[in-house]
C-alpha cells in the first residue's frame, strides 16, 4: 500500500494543540488567528474559502458525516459555530458575507468537537465535561459530567447515534446514552498513562483508545458483550523494534573502520554491540516519543454482510454453482485498518489481526507528489493528526500538524501512486526489513523478480518421482514352492531340531474342564427360511460407521454448542486429561491420561469403553487413524505405541529412532549406537498421509516413519511382534532448541506439515520435496504450544482455500489465525485466560468457530467472523486442558485437569 505526500499548508501559528479536520473532500485549518480556511483536496492550490466570525483563537474543528450538505463546526472560547460549506461557497461567489449558525457562546476553550451521524447534534469537550449541543435548535441539550480530569475527546457511535464515548486524562472512558439520559458503562482506571485519542470502527462496533505510553486498546461496543477488551497492542514496543532495525542497518552500511578480532566471550561481545544500538535507540525515542497522538479507522474493501457467507444475491442458485468463496476471502475483504499516529512515525494496523502492515518513518524522506518541485519531504516531528476516508475511493487522507513548525502536511495513504516508490528511500528499506523479519522464503522467477513461494494444503502438483511420500515398508514374504523344500531337505542333516511345543500347534486349545456339560443332544431346524435370511444379512462391525451415518452431513448453518448434555468422570482419582480426540466417524473419543493409560469411550458418553495401559509415563497425546481402528499414543516414557481394538497389548512400540528390526534379537538389549533410543519425551504423534506414515515430535526433531502392522497374535510367542517401522527422514528446525507443536492433515493426501519451535517461529514442511517451504518468524510473543488446522471432517467439506487456514495459541498471547498462502495473520482472538497451562484448541467442522480451553475453568467458542467470543462454557471444576468438536453433530467435548469430560450441544 503506497503513501504519498500530497502538499503542505502554512498556518499562522503552531497548531499542534489544535484539532484538525478533513472529510475526504475538504480540509479546514486556521487561516488567520481568528478565521478558518477551507481548501478542496482536489484543488488545494486555489485560494481557500475563508470563514470569518470568531474573535478569539479557534481550538477545535470538525466536519460532519454527511456530504450533502457538508457541515463544519468551529469551536473557540467565544463561539461555537456551524457552517454550511456549500452554502458558504455560493454566498462567496455572489459577493455576499458568509454567515454561520452560532449554537453556543462563552465557554472555556474546547479541547474537542464532534458531530453525530445525523449532523444535528454536536459533542463539545470542555474541561472535565462533555456538552451536547443541538445544531438545529441552537441550544445546549445536556451536560455529561463525571470525569475527574480533562476530557480529551468524545465521539458518537455510528451504529448507535444516541451513544457517546468519552475519554479523559483520568485514565478512564465512559459510554453514555443520551436518549435515555443515563451512563451505560464506566471503566476502571485502565492505564498508568492518560488517554489522548479515540476512534470508533463503524463496521465492527469497537472503539480504539490511545495513551501517552504508546499503548492501543480496543473495546467491544456491541450490545450485551460487557464492553470487554478485544485487543491490547504495544505500539511502543514496535517503535523500539523499528529503531533497532534502523540502527542495525545504519551500522551495517556505514564504514566502521578497521575490523576487530576479539577473544572475549560471546556474551561480552554481544553486550558491547547492543550498547551502541541501545544508545542510538534511546536517542531516537527521546527525540520523537511514543505517545499515541491520533487514531482513525479506514473502511474495508467490502463491508461485512449478515447472513450466509459467499452467497450474495444467489440465494436460489445451487451450492455447486456458487463461486469458490471461502472464509479466507471474507476475512481479508471485510477487515478494516487502524491508522496510528505517533510523534515520529505513522503505522497502519490490521484491526482484525493486530499486525502492523505499514510503517512510515518521519525521520527519513517521504515520496512526494509530482506537482511539488521537491522530490522527497522530511516531515520531522508530528504534533497532532486527523484521518478521513474519501467517499470516492479507498484512500485515506491524513493531516499531520508539525510540532515545531507552522505547517500542516497532507498524506494520501492507499492511493495508486503515479510513480513507484524509490527503492532507495528509507521507508521502502524499512518495509523490506519488515518483510525480512517474517522470514518468508521467496523464489526468483525467470524475469528476475522475487515472488513468494505459493504453498497450499491441498496439493497442486503431483508426487515427485523421488518423493518421500512414495516410501513404503513392504514385509518380506516367505518363500514357497520347491526351493523351500530343497532348502529344508538340505539342512536336515546338519541342523538340530528346535524345541517344539508339546501340542505342535501355534494355539493351545482349552482342556474343557471349565465348560458346562452338554445337555442338549439334538435340535431340529424348524425355521429354515429365517435362517437363510440371517446368513444373507450384512454383519456390521461395531466400530465401523453405518451406511446411514455416511450419508449424513454436518449442519453448516448450526449454532455453536451452548447447552450441557452429559457429564462424565473418567478418572475417579482425579488424574488429569492431557488430550482428547474424536475418531473420524465420531463414534469414539480417546483420552490421553496422566495416569499412564489411554481411555477409549463410546458415543454417546455413558462411561463404557476400553482402557489401554502399558506406558511408564504420563500420556501426552492420543490420536486416531483415518479408518478408526488404530490409536497412536505418545508418552513421557520416551515411547509411542499403536493400539488396535480388541487387543490389550500394543501392536507396535516406537522406542528407537531408526527402526525396530532388531527388537527381538540380542542386539537390541546390548545397545546399538546407530539405532539409539529416543533421548527425550515424545510430546506428540499422529498418522499422516491417510495412515501411510507416522509423525513423532521429540526434542528439536520431527520424525517421519513408514511402518507395517501385523495384528496376528501367537499364544506361544505373544511378546514377539512382526510389526515393523523404519525412519524415512528426520527434520530439525534451524534455530529452535525444541519443537513445541506440530500439525498435519490425515483425512486426505496433503504435502504440508506445520511445526512450531521454541524460537517463536513456524515452519511449513513440504514432504513432497522433503524441505522447508516457508518460515514465519515471531509468530506470537511466546512459543506456540498448539497448532490447529481447518480440516473439516468426513461429513463436511470446504472450498479449497479454506483448508489453508490454521490457528496457533501461545501463553498470554491469545489465538492467531493464519493464511498459509500469504503467511499472514488474518485474525487475532483474545478474551480467554491462558497464562501458564497449554490449553488446546480446535476448529469446528463447519470452519466458522474456534473452541479453546482456559484457566478460569471455562471453555470459549470464538466466531471467526467476529472479534470476540460468542460462547463461554462455564461450570468446570478445574482448568479446561483440551476441547474437540464432534465430526457429525454440532457438539463439543471439554476435558479438565481433574479427569472429567463434559459434552455440550446446540440444543
TrEMBL record:
Q: Where is the composition biased (Basic and acidic residues)?
A: 268-277
Please give the superkingdom of this protein's source: Eukaryota
Q: Which PROSITE patterns does the annotation name?
A: WD_REPEATS_2, WD_REPEATS_REGION
What InterPro entries would the database entry show? WD40/YVTN_repeat-like_dom_sf, WD40_repeat_dom_sf, WD40_rpt, WDR27
Per UniProt, the keywords (alphabetical) are:
WD repeat
Which stretches of sequence are listed as region Disordered? 244-315, 474-538
**Keyword Metal-binding attributed:** no
Instruction: List residue spans for each WD repeat.
Output: 144-186, 612-643, 873-907
Compositionally biased tracts (Acidic residues): 278-287
Q: What is this protein called?
A: WD repeat-containing protein 27-like
Q: Which PANTHER family match?
A: WD REPEAT-CONTAINING PROTEIN 27 (PTHR44525)
Bias-annotated ranges (Low complexity): 476-493
Compositional bias of kind Polar residues? 250-265, 506-538
Q: Which Gene3D superfamilies match?
A: YVTN repeat-like/Quinoprotein amine dehydrogenase
